[in-house]
Amino acid sequence: MIRGKWQLKDHEAERRLFNRRLTVAGVFVMLLFSALVIKLVNLQVYQHEYFSARSDGNRLHSQYVPPARGLIFDSSGRLLADNQPIFNLTVVREQVEDMDALLETLAGMISLTEDDIAQFERRLQRNRVPYTSVPLRYVLSEEEKSRIAVISHKLDGVAIEPQFVRQYPYAALTAHSVGYVSEINREELESLDEAQRENYGGTNHIGKTGIERTYEDLLHGTVGYELVEKNNRGQVTRRLDRTDPVAGKNLTLHLDGRLQEAAHAALGEFRGAVVAIDPATGGILAMVSKPGFDPNLFVTGISSSDYGRLVTDQINTPLFDRSTNPYPPGSTVKPFIGLGGLHHELVDYDYTIQDPGYFRLPGVSYRWGDYTLRTAIGGGHGVTDLQKAIYQSCDTFFYELGHRMGIDTMHSFLSQFGFGDNFALDVGYARTGVLPSRDWKRATRGEPWYPGDTINSSIGQGYMWATPLQLATATAIMANKGKVVEPRLLKAIDGEPYEPLIENPRPDVVIEDADYWRYVQESMTMVVHRPYSDTFRDYGTAFEAIAMADRDMSYTMAGKSGTAQVVGISQEILSSEDIEVSDLNKDHALFVSFAPAMHESIEPQIAVAVFVENGEHGSSVAGPIAKAVTDTYLLEILGLDFAAMEPGDEAEPQDRLVSQIDE
Amino acid sequence: MNSQDFVRQSTGLQVPHRRLSSFWRTVHIDPPLLVGVMLLCAFGLFVLNSASDGNPGDMRRQMTGMGMGLIVMIIVSQFNVHFYRSWAPTLYAGGLAVLVLVLFVGVETNGARSWLDLPGLPSFQPSELMKFVVPLMVAWYLASRPLPPRFKHLFWSAIMVLVPAGLIVIQNDTGTAIMVAMSGIFVVLLAGIRWSIVLSGLFALLLASPAWYIFLAQEHQKNRILTFFDPYRDPTGAGYNIIQSQIAIGSGGIYGKGYGNGAQSHLDFIPESNTDFILAVLAEEFGLLGVLFLIALYLFVLIRGFSIAWSSRDMFSRLLAGSITLTFFFYVFVNMAMVSGLLPVIGLPLPLISRGGTAVVTLFIGFGLLMSIQTHARSRVV
Predict the structure, then answer these.
(1) Which of A11, A44, A60, A240 best probes binding to B when mutated, by most B CB atoms within 10 angstroms?
(2) Fewest beta carbons less than 10 Å away: which of A237, A663, B137, B315?
(3) Catalytic residue among A75, A182, A331, A458
(4) Are A574 and A608 in contact (CB under 8 A)?
(5) Which of A45-49, A380-384, A577-581 shows the highest mean pLDDT?
(6) Do A344 and A478 belong together in one domain?
(7) Average pLDDT score over residue span B336-344
(8) Mean pLDDT of A161-173
(9) Full strand arrangement of the beta sheet holding A60-65
(10) How many whole angstroms separate alpha carbon A515 and alpha carbon B229?
């Protein structure tokens, strides 16, 4: 049957038919290949440049290289702010398909609190350059690092990145003065101009307080760039080009770590502040506010529970910088007002009053009592001249002097010492306090100035408020006999001594008779050194606490105590139950001092202001703190040996002093 | 090139160097085809080495597949093609039976239930085998009938093609179904089906395609069509492959970036760079010249296939040889056109270049049949 069909076929015709078809097929093959080649030529020849650029765009990424932040040293080269390497877990949002799933996976492998995730989401909200990595968790432990590393190839967009972050070795001791850096927030980012924002492209942190903020521009440095090749998963495979960043400047401060420690220790359990200034340079040697807080917590994002603890502590208020916030200065202003009395010829060395223990304005029945006598047996200081009024802190004398001086004269005289103003060059955040005047009262209270207001002001109460920094500044000017030095923290940049350009230098305080300086300084040394005698109330208020407590005291110290009434405790605090209310009502204790005073060969080296919150007694509580700080500076840090300085044998110790200061 | 080139080549080979050609005929190997295939294999391994970053596992598997393919090819070529012809209906019936079997006991891989994992046998895809069983069957059927085929014969031919293709579609392996159908359709086309029928068939397809798109096409198929017309409608999703592959090809330029320097492939921007999209790797690293070289190698094999078909002594051999050659071309073209953006993305490998064992063995069965046609036909005549 098959054979029969074969016979029906025309084999030759069929072969020709097949060959025709095969030829057509061949033509089709060539046509289709030609189309393919045309397409390829189009892609590879005509569009080559376009696709080359696309290919480079795929793999080449320019990324920021953040500069190393400048270090901060104390005046002896101890690190106050260091950079430490840590490892962070970062995420590139654009490369993550399912963020929730990723976070869930990661939470199973490393510790990831809700707080971490909340902060991470806040970071994502910021206007960041696309395809930059955003930190999810800071400071991975070694174990967490290895756990992530094992499965990192499955986690697109997730990377472990090393980073240098700030570390503050002195922690709470320098929390306010040096300040801290923390993550840049959206507002800060938006407040930067275009060029600055570019410069912060690779930076996560910015100075928030203190020196870190004041000298942010110097510390930050200039961003670098890096051209890298990245694969499909965003991992860097090669580095192709690099512009190195310029590290920030290293700053040396006048602060001395040892003095900072000494001041901190001297404050003991008290809340308070200590500011010490070198009268010759205005350099701030110590600036402590206690209690402090650990600034390191802020660097990598403080947890909300830690932050809550710092904010809700309304008694200790650790975030509050007591050294730059104002309090009633109390009797510490008396030497300045006394000096003003001499200058304006309201009193002279022979002027005395008969102190009954109170003061009455003519025609007014109200008595201004002498606070210093409150707990004593009554009566007054008897016959009192200015010197005694200072070393005995006689309120009545100053009531009377202040009344005669008037607020206008008092205001203009005290303002030369920095009251009501911020003389500091680089502590811009310091408050100015209040040096009251008629204008001030009218502007802020809408009330005229009453004579009674002057009485209160003349003993540093009432409207008068001053910061510990201001008190130290004024004391330094007193120690300088009128030469004004603006307080400053920055001593050197990259080891080069820094001399700030002061556009409008404050005029020196010029006194009618230069001997008035000696007179007031001598009065202040009597505060510390005038011993008890048979004469009633004729000793220095701080004699017992300072000179008597240290019989070997080798140098002379000029000081003035102050005890200021507490004003304005909020009702909220007073009504809370767990507080010893009586403690918060206690007076604030203050003490200002400089030393060595009245020395034949050595100018005063340190001016100190001490503020002790609810310390009660300026002389007995704040005085010893000032003494301890001064001791540390003069005897330990400067290494002065006053006992060895015999009169007439001054050359050697002076040389030593000079070399010490040069350090 | 035109048809005269085929004539010239085939006549050139018809002047045999007696002794040498008789040796090759004895071992049933066609030297030009062997050389072409071996060159393709070598070039393929070379490209794969770069595409897989020198992964020794991949290379070993690919070489094993090629070695097995060579052995299978030689075994296949030892039998006279008429032996296969006489077994065609049996093979076809058996093939259909296995396809049905797969529907019940098949193993699912990549969404297609097309693998058979019988105890004692290596797992394989019966649908792969149908790629030469179907043309074998259609050629068997049409070769003994008067050509051009009558309508009745066309009808039965269509049944022979559509039944296995349909079974494979049910396995959810549309790509293979199209290839199996095409291998059968090529036989019918070569058998001299009237152009009017071909054209009306194409016209009908054109009319039916919107209906297919609206009612039958699955979501990913629609996506592929839309992406073909505008890859940038979803550049990180459906369009990603084709965009990245075009970037790779285009950035390769005329001379390429150099062996192992393909940034697109080595930085993993090209998905499936070892398999379906390996042409992008080749084009990126070797440029236009590299792709032209590959096309030349393919053309060499194709021309040899055509020449074997042209010079065959009987219609069955012609139809089979022509179909095998055209199917091979179809593979090559569809993959290259898809990777370069001329056709929508269809999951087909580039023959002998892409990684993948089973497909390689199937190809070598086809080359074995071509060699069988070439060597046995001569010896029988002589």
Answers:
(1) A44
(2) A663
(3) A331
(4) no
(5) A45-49
(6) yes
(7) 91
(8) 89
(9) A60-65, A224-230, A236-243
(10) 98
Residue A55, domain member (yes or no): no
Are the beta carbons of B333 and A33 separated by less than 8 Å?
yes
Let me know whether A562 and A514 are in one domain. yes
Average pLDDT over residues B35-41: 95
Look up residue A20 and give its two tokens.
């025709």
CA atoms within 13 A on the CB side of A553: 24
**The one-letter amino acid at A69:** R
- A450 in a structural domain: yes
Amino acid at A3: R
Give the tokens for residue A345. Answer: 């010829």
Could you tell me which chain A residue has the CA closest to the CA of B147? A14
pLDDT in tens, A532-558: 988 888 899 999 999 999 888 999 999
Residues A480 and A364 in one domain: yes
Tell me the sheet residues that pair with A96: none
Active site residue A331: yes
pLDDT band of residue A646 (cuts 50, 70, 90) is: low
Cβ–Cβ below 8 Å for A5 and B336: no
> Is A56 among the domain residues?
no
- Same domain assignment for residues A133 and A153: yes
CB contact under 8 A, A237 and B295: no
Q: Is residue A394 part of a domain?
A: yes
State how far the Cα of A299 lies from the Cα of A302, in Å rounded to an integer.
7
Is B147 in Cβ contact with A52 (below 8 Å)?
Answer: no
Report CA A212 to chain centroid distance, whole Å. Answer: 7
Residue A466 and residue A347 in one domain: yes
Question: Which of B302, B318, B319 lies nearest to residue A29, judging by beta carbons?
Answer: B302
| pLDDT at position A376 | 52
Range of the domain at A30: 2-46
ipTM metric: 0.90
Query: Please, which contacts does A121-125 make with residues 24 or more away whose CB atoms are closer than 8 Å?
Result: A123/A183, A124/A93, A125/A186
- The amino acid present at A607, given as its one-letter code, is A
Same domain? For A97 and A235 the reply is yes
Pairing state between β A606-612 and A588-595: antiparallel
Which CATH number characterizes residue A642's domain?
3.40.710.10
Residue in B with minimal Cα distance to A32: B333
Biggest CA pair distance of chain A:
158
Number of structural domains found in chain A: 3
| Beta bridge mates, A488 | A283
Instruction: Specify whether A406 is located in the same domain as A522.
Output: yes
Distances (CA, A) of A381 to A166, A354, A360, A529, B43: 56, 8, 16, 19, 113
Q: How many CB atoms lie within 10 A of CB B20?
A: 10
Going by DSSP bridges, is the β-strand pair A284-290/A134-137 parallel, antiparallel, or unpaired? unpaired
Identity of the residue in A9, A21, A58 whose CB atom sits nearest the CB atom of B269: A58
pLDDT in tens, A480-534: 999 999 999 999 999 999 988 888 888 999 998 999 999 999 999 999 999 998 8
Q: In the structure, what pLDDT confidence band is assigned to residue B291 with cuts at 50, 70 and 90? A: very high
Whether residue A355 is predicted with pLDDT greater than 60 in this model: the reply is: yes
How large is the average pLDDT for residues B303-324? 93
Average pLDDT for chain B: 85
Beta carbons of B147 and A32 less than 8 Å apart? no
Q: What is the pLDDT of residues A75-112, one digit of tens each?
A: 999 999 999 888 888 888 877 888 888 888 888 888 88
For chain A, give the number of residues: 663
Lowest mean pLDDT among A569-583, B318-332, B343-357: A569-583
Q: Does A38 touch chain B (CB under 8 A)?
A: no
Chain B residues touching A35 at Cβ < 8 A: 337, 342
- State pLDDT tens for residues A305-320: 888 888 888 888 899 9
**Chain position carrying tokens 């609190």:** A113
Lowest mean pLDDT among A352-366, A610-624, B199-213: A352-366
Query: Do residue A222 and residue A264 come from a single domain?
Result: no
